[in-house]
Amino acid sequence: MYSRFLTDKINKRTGSGKAIVVVGARQVGKTTLIESILKSTDYLLLDGDDPKTRTLLTEPSSEQIRSIIGRYKYIFIDESRK
Hints:
- The protein has a two-stranded parallel ribbon.
- It is built from four helices and two strands; from the N terminus they run ααβααβ.
- The mean pLDDT is 90.
- The chain is of the alpha+beta class and 82 residues long.
- The longest helix has 12 residues, at 2-13.
- It is globular.
- It has one domain (2-78).
């Protein structure tokens, strides 16, 4: 039930040009939910648990951001930190 509710809400906001933030307890299916929504979409997944990715995303310049994002319309950052 929650999955369907959240899927509908996220789908309505996808493509709005705004960030969508999914927050919740560990191991409840946040990543699985987003991956299922984006499954037929060409998206970039950045894993914040990966030390190299974390370093790359720490204070990047505008040119570095453009280089990372490239042609992707959707960017999914999993396990982001404050």
